[in-house]
């Protein structure tokens, strides 16, 4: 007689088989972004299977507080019923239609209105949709060049950005990214892209402890570069309000206002890369707003849908809209776009996500929890020989690790990997970037989970000897 297996045992066998299969395939058939394929084989990626609130779970059932926030983007947390329901409702109504010339749909129209309402302070007037942050920056760069051609200034094609800044992985966006690591394997890059020093207090050759002087000196570099290149050849200055992937570099408060003045003086556009900072991560709704600067162009992604569905958006102010509106030549036609520009499901997710951001005041919570996190992590500078600097704004925080505090020599990869592993073992996941640990949890995080992250890091630094 055949042996009967009860349903629960059969289900458990299926789960175990699936578990074995996932581990067998892991990293052997897929290349992962921002890593060497051989490294992924030696150190298989953590397989994340579940998420709820600020917690994630791996394939082995281990739970972690997500100190990475997906990838800076799970602002509203995992498993939000409001966003899920908005997506399902939209699927029942219209799963997809193009927003190319001649057609549109209600959600893209509603979201455009919402975004412009949210950016009235910045005088934004038009929205162009894409599929993510790199797309949004590519759009900003292409339409910035087009803007100057419309005005008859075709020689304005050059871009100036910051060393250590990160703007994406396309040929244009990687060309204005200020770290050669993201370009080296793919060069030659886009012509006409130049970089100036970022105002990084911990690592700068200009001042000892005067951030205002540093901001002034780095802004002067921008003006010297514009003059050197020829102001009538520069299309735009591009910068993140807080430099994210470059190490959470928070510029001095005078830097961006000075840059705005310089751009205005020479007629240069100011493009704010808000892909990470936008929708509350810095403790303000937009990072630019926290600097007191009104950009000409804003790039948005990540938190716009809280990561539930890919979406990017590029916003243009009245200055740029007027130029296109007053032009009737073919040069004013936008010969740019993506199949999934303004995807209905993504727009529906964005509307639900932004409703949560506003109703729950996630920028305010990011400010409160970020201040608390910083107050605890700052003590690491005195406690641990390997912690050279703790910096951040809102829920963007970095711990920079050094092997010598006087020379600021960076620690090696094995030490960083050990700190990461020990932190993981204690129930929190953080991100490593060079000699930095970067912490960017969902904006809904509360004090008790901030403590989990900080306590896990503290134990890791206590156990791993430099």
CATH class identity of the largest domain: Alpha Beta
Helix content: 40-55%
Envelope shape: globular
Q: How much beta, percentage-wise? A: 15-25%
The secondary-structure class comes to alpha/beta
Q: Could you please describe the fold and organization of this structure?
A:
With 466 residues, this protein is α/β, with parallel strands linked by helices. It has 2 domains: 20-76 and 362-463, Aspartate Aminotransferase, domain 1 (Alpha-Beta Complex); 82-359, Aspartate Aminotransferase, domain 2 (3-Layer(aba) Sandwich). It is 41% helix and 17% strand. The protein has helices at 7-25, 37-42, 69-72, 81-93, 106-118, 133-150, 171-176, 211-229, 255-266, 287-291, 318-325, 344-359, 362-377, 380-383, 413-425, 447-463, and strands at 48-52, 55-58, 63-66, 124-130, 158-162, 193-196, 234-239, 269-273, 297-300, 312-317, 387-393, 396-404, 409-410, 428-429, 431-433, 436-439. The strands form 3 sheets. The protein has a 7-stranded mixed β-sheet with strand order 4-10-9-8-7-5-6, sandwiched between helices. Strands 11, 12, 13, 15 and 16 form a 5-stranded antiparallel β-sheet that branches. A 4-stranded mixed β-sheet has the order 1-2-3-14. Strand 7 (234-239), helix 9 (255-266) and strand 8 form a beta-alpha-beta unit. Helix 4 runs antiparallel to helix 12. The longest helix is centred in the N-terminal third of the chain and has 19 residues, at 7-25. The chain starts with 6 loop residues before the first helix and ends with a helix.
């Amino acid at each position: 007689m055949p042996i009967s297996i009860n349903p629960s045992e059969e289900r458990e066998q299926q789960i175990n088989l699936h578990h074995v299969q996932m581990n067998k395939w892991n990293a052997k058939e897929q290349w992962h972004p921002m890593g060497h394929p051989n490294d992924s084989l030696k150190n298989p990626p953590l397989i994340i299977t579940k998420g709820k609130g600020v917690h994630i779970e791996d394939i082995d059932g281990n739970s972690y507080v997500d100190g990475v926030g997906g990838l800076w983007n799970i602002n509203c947390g995992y498993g939000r019923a409001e966003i899920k329901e908005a997506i399902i409702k939209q699927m029942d109504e219209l799963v997809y239609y193009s927003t190319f010339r001649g057609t549109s749909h209600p959600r893209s129209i509603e979201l455009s209105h919402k975004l412009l309402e949210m950016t009235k302070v910045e005088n934004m007037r038009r929205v162009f949709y894409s599929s993510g942050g790199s797309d949004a920056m590519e759009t900003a760069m292409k339409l910035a060049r087009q803007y100057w051609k419309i005005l008859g200034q075709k020689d304005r094609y050059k871009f100036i950005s910051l060393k250590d800044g990160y703007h994406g992985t396309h040929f244009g966006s990687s060309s204005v990214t200020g770290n050669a690591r993201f370009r080296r394997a793919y060069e030659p890059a886009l012509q006409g892209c130049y970089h100036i020093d970022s105002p990084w207090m911990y690592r700068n050759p200009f001042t000892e402890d005067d951030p205002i002087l540093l901001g002034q000196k780095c802004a002067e570099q921008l003006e010297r570069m514009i003059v050197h290149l020829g102001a009538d050849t520069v299309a735009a200055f591009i910068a993140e309000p807080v430099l994210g992937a470059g190490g959470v570099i928070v510029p001095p408060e005078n830097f961006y206002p000075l840059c705005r003045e310089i751009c205005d003086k020479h007629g240069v556009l100011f493009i704010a890369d808000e892909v990470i900072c936008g929708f509350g991560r810095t403790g303000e709704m937009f990072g630019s707003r926290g600097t007191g600067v009104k950009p000409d162009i804003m790039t948005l992604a990540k938190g716009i849908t809280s990561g539930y569905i890919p979406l990017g958006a590029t916003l243009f102010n009245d200055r740029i809209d007027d130029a296109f509106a007053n032009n009737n030549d073919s040069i004013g036609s936008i010969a740019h776009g993506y199949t999934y520009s303004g995807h209905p499901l993504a727009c529906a997710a964005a509307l639900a996500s932004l409703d949560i951001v506003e109703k729950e005041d996630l920028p305010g919570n990011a400010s409160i929890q970020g201040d608390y996190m910083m107050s605890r992590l700052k003590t690491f500078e005195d406690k641990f020989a390997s912690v050279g600097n703790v910096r951040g704004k809102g829920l963007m925080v970095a711990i920079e690790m050094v092997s010598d505090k006087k020379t600021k020599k960076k620690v090696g990869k094995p030490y960083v990997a050990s700190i990461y592993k020990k932190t993981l073992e204690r129930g929190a996941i953080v991100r490593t970037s060079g000699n930095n640990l970067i912490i960017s949890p969902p904006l809904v995080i509360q004090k008790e989970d901030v403590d989990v992250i900080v306590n896990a890091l503290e134990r890791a630094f206590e156990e791993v000897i430099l």
